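Propose amino acids for all 284 sites.
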């Protein structure tokens, strides 16, 4: 299984690492059982050579946190892509906060020079208690500093957050703090997903034992309302159109904030399940 952000649907997915170097977030089943490794340059080169006759404008470097690749090797991969794919316009990559903080702005700029155009950072929540509970391996401060570094380098920043991860009890604090921290990060894109329980993950046990109770579909939409209400961005494209969500939205913030809140409040007022994405169409 290869995972990529929804916005990279038309990109060539080039697997440069296998799995995730951390692989311990309690909700994540993406790379269960996969032993992390960085592929040899020769292996990567072969894949690039194979696709070089085709017209490819976007490449996404998989898997989980490919920015962990040492700088020299990443420069080598990007240089080779640039030479071999003539129409290449943008390269994207997943990263966690620590991968970003390990690099200085100069190094990030060097990656940008060679085509790295967007970094996808998994934040999940702005509530320190939730980050600790889900073993996110990043503090609020690290998330904010990593976001600023990416912005300072000129690379686009896309941040993922997770509705429902605070449970019923922490729902509103999670939503409010996530909106607040997102505002400090001021990303170019935000992708809101809704928590779906992957069998075999530690969070499944929390649900089974009743330590975590998931919000209802309308509870998740209430979180979306609070989150958007607390978001103050310079210029951001906010999307909740991922298949896991009950209410898909694609909005520009701050311009469309009031309109989006109005739409959300209408849905919350009617509480009509027919206004939501049906359960059978939800997916990760
Ligand atoms: S959420 Fe991201 S960092 Fe956490 S285990 Fe999954 S791939 Fe790794």
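Proposal:
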């Amino acid at each position: 299984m290869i995972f990529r952000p929804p916005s990279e649907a038309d990109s060539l997915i080039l697997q440069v690492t296998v799995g995730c170097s951390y692989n311990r977030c309690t909700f994540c089943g993406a790379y269960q059982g996969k032993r992390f490794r960085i592929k040899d340059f020769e292996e990567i080169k072969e894949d690039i050579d194979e696709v070089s006759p085709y017209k490819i404008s976007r490449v996404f470097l998989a898997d989980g946190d490919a920015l962990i690749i040492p700088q020299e090797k990443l420069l080598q991969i990007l240089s080779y892509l640039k030479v071999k794919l003539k129409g290449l316009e943008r390269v994207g990559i997943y990263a966690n906060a620590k991968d970003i903080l390990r690099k200085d702005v100069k190094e990030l700029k060097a990656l940008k020079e060679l085509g790295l155009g967007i970094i996808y950072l998994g934040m999940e929540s702005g509530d320190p208690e939730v980050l600790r509970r889900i073993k996110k391996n990043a503090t609020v401060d690290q998330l904010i500093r990593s976001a600023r570094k990416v912005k300072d380098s000129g690379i686009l920043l896309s941040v993922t957050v997770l509705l429902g991860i605070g449970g019923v009890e922490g729902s509103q604090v999670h939503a409010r703090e996530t909106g607040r921290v997102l505002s400090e990060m001021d990303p170019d894109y935000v992708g809101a997903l809704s928590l779906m329980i992957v069998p075999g993950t530690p969070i499944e046990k929390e649900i089974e034992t009743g330590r975590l109770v998931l919000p209802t579909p309308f509870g998740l939409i209430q979180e979306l309302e609070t989150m958007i209400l607390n978001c103050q961005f310079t210029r951001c494209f906010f999307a909740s159109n991922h298949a896991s969500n009950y209410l898909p939205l694609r909005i520009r913030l701050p311009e469309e904030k009031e309109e989006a809140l109005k739409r959300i409040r209408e849905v919350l007022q009617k509480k009509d399940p027919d206004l939501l994405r049906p359960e059978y169409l939800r997916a990760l």
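The pocket of iron/sulfur cluster is lined by residues 20, 22-25, 28, 30-31, 64-65, 96, 122 (CB under 6 Å). The chain has ten helices and ten strands.
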